[in-house]
Specification:
35% of the residues lie in helices and 20% in strands. It has nine helices and ten strands. The chain is globular, with a radius of gyration of 21 Å.
Length: 268
C-alpha cells in the first residue's frame, strides 16, 4: 500500500440507499454535492442525483446483479485516474457499499495507488424492504440473528452452500436475506428445502422503497412458482424465516376478504 499523497484528490464511496431519496443520510447528501466527478451505479435513482453540483461530471458505470455491467477493473482504474487529476470523486452505489457493493475491492485498489478514500454508509435494500412491510428481521420471538447472502456468485466461484445454510438457519433460528437471488431461485428453493420446512414463510420485495414497489408472500416450496406467476424480477430481495409468519397470515386474510366481497357483489 502506498502512502497517501495529499496533493491527489479524494474518493468517497457513498451508499445511495435503496432508491427513495429521502432515505439518504445527511453525510451522503453533503458528499454528493461536494463531488466534482460522480461514478454512478444503475440502481441509483435520478432523484438522488438532484443533490449533485450542476458543474459536476456524472459518469454512469452500470452495475446490476445478473446483467451486463461495466468491468470492475475499469471502474477502479477510472477512480484512480480521476483522483490523480485532483478530482473529488464520489463512487455512488445503491444500498450500502459494504453489503455486496464491492467496496472492499475498490478500497484495496485505491489504497494500493496511494489515493485517499472514505466511506459513507447507506441503507441496504434488505433493511428497506422489511421496513416497507413493517416486519422486523430479528423479532426475538422468532429469530436469533440474520444472514445477508448473495444468490449471484462471481465467475469461477461455486457460490453459497444453500443446504448447509438451511440447516444452520433452522438450528440457530436465523432470518435469511437473499440479494440477487431471482435468477437462481429454483435452485435456491430446492437446496434450502433440504434443511428448512416446506411451509417456511417467504417475502419477495421488488423495488424496495420506491413508488413502484411490489411485495408478495408465500411459503418456501412456492418461491419459484410465485416469482414466475407474479412476474417479479430484479432488483428484488428475498427474505425467508419465521419472522414473516404474521405478514403471510395478514396477506392471506386480505386476499380472503377481497374474495368474499367479490362473491357478495356477484350474488347481489
Amino acid at each position: 500500500m502506498k502512502i497517501n499523497n495529499p496533493r491527489l484528490g479524494l474518493v468517497t464511496l457513498v451508499g445511495a440507499g435503496p432508491g427513495d431519496p429521502e432515505l439518504l443520510t445527511l453525510k451522503a447528501v453533503k458528499a454528493i454535492h461536494a463531488a466534482t466527478v460522480l461514478l454512478v451505479d444503475d440502481l441509483v435513482s435520478d432523484e438522488v442525483l438532484l443533490h449533485a453540483n450542476p458543474n459536476a461530471r456524472i459518469v454512469h458505470v452500470g452495475k446490476r446483479g445478473g446483467c451486463a455491467s461495466t468491468p470492475q477493473s475499469f471502474i477502479e482504474k477510472l477512480m484512480v485516474s480521476e483522483a490523480q487529476r485532483g478530482e473529488q470523486v464520489v463512487r455512488l452505489k445503491g444500498g450500502d457499499p459494504f453489503i455486496f457493493g464491492r467496496a472492499g475491492e475498490e478500497i484495496e485498489a485505491l489504497q494500493a495507488a496511494g489515493i485517499r478514500v472514505q466511506v459513507v454508509n447507506g441503507i441496504s435494500s434488505g433493511l428497506a424492504a422489511m421496513g416497507s412491510i413493517n416486519v422486523s428481521l430479528t423479532h426475538r420471538e422468532h429469530a436469533h440473528g440474520v444472514v445477508f447472502v448473495t444468490g449471484h456468485a462471481k465467475p469461477g466461484d461455486t457460490g453459497t452452500d444453500w443446504r448447509a445454510l438451511a440447516k444452520t438457519a433452522a438450528q440457530a433460528k436465523l432470518t435469511l436475506v437473499i440479494y440477487m437471488g431471482v435468477s437462481g431461485a429454483a435452485h435456491i428453493q430446492s437446496e434450502l428445502l433440504q434443511g428448512l420446512a416446506h411451509n417456511t414463510p417467504v417475502a419477495i420485495i421488488q423495488h424496495a422503497s420506491l413508488k413502484n414497489e411490489r411485495h408478495v408472500a408465500c411459503t418456501l416450496d412456492q418461491l419459484h412458482e410465485t416469482l414466475t406467476k407474479e412476474r417479479l424480477g430484479s432488483p428484488s430481495v428475498i427474505v425467508i424465516g419465521q419472522v414473516l409468519q404474521s405478514f403471510l397470515n395478514q396477506l392471506a386474510h386480505e386476499a380472503q376478504t377481497v374474495a368474499m366481497e367479490a362473491l357478495k357483489q356477484d350474488s347481489a
